[in-house]
Amino acid sequence: MRDPGLPSLDQLRVFIAVIDHGGFAHAARALHRTQSVISYTIANLEDQLNVALLDRSKRKPTLTEAGKALLADARAVSAKVDDMRARARALGAGLEAEICLVVDIMFPMCRLVRLLEAFRREYPTVSLRLHTEALGSVTQMVLEGRCQLGISGTPVQMPPAIERQLAGHVLMMPVCAPGHPLAQIEGVVPTAALREHLQLVVTDRSPLTSGQDFGVLGHRDWRLGDLHSKHALLQGGLGWGSMPEAMIARDLASGRLVRLRVQDGDELQYPLFVIHRTDDHLGPAGSWLKQQFLDLDYSQPHEDD
What we know:
Belongs to the LysR transcriptional regulatory family. GO terms for molecular function: DNA-binding transcription factor activity; transcription cis-regulatory region binding. Keywords: DNA-binding, Transcription, Transcription regulation. This is DNA-binding transcriptional LysR family regulator. α1 (9-21) packs across α3 (35-49), α1 (9-21) crosses α4 and α2 (24-31) crosses α3 (35-49). The chain has ten helices and eleven strands. It is elongated and about 90 Å long. The chain has helices spanning 9-21, 24-31, 35-49, 65-92, 109-122, 136-143, 191-195, 227-235, 245-254, 284-295, and strands at residues 54-55, 62-63, 98-104, 127-133, 149-152, 162-176, 199-202, 221-224, 241-244, 258-259, 268-277. The protein is α/β, with parallel strands linked by helices.
């Protein structure tokens, strides 16, 4: 038995049309061809593949077992070619092939999901690479050109090569587990009491923030590389620390965590900046994404899952 030949894209699309439109005549009308041309194309495709795709013993042709299996492949090939053509058309118009975005871990994840859903609808041909980092690592990735766009909360002086715009703020609040000694203090918790207990702090390895501490009060602290680890340790009663309101709203409502009223104020506005390199011109997709972050209403209540 000879090996299958190489079917053309047109043959595959005629095959799909016969099935989707319910027969040769309907497919011919949909494709603006004669019925004889449709029949000839299917016969040639079957000859190319060495299998019968359609059972013609009945008035309406039906798929054979081989036809059922190969129809899925035909659809996949056709869809891939359509995607390729759409991407080529977009690239020809100046649209980016890919966007790399890095987001500060304090950014509310529920909002990020909704924003990226809108991005996918608006730019379906643009691939996205997403990173989440802490503190100076966001700026470092943009500075080194590894990401075109960043959402940074770094409270340090930005390098001259970085352009930034304030997008909004995330509300941070100090919390601990209900069984923690600090939770037993009624009223305002003195700063001296905070210093005596282990503080859980998110840190990063960026040289931009090397040797700098932000909001560290405790004489003893544990440095953690990600926010979810900090969240778990707080729930486990291992220490106290500040967390984004969105991430702990359900914990506060259920009593898994309690909010601390501290002497220096129990809320902190954590700034979020949209950043990119001054010498890196954002394309249509990058500019659209940047504007979405700037247009978000950060004052509205939100909650992460």
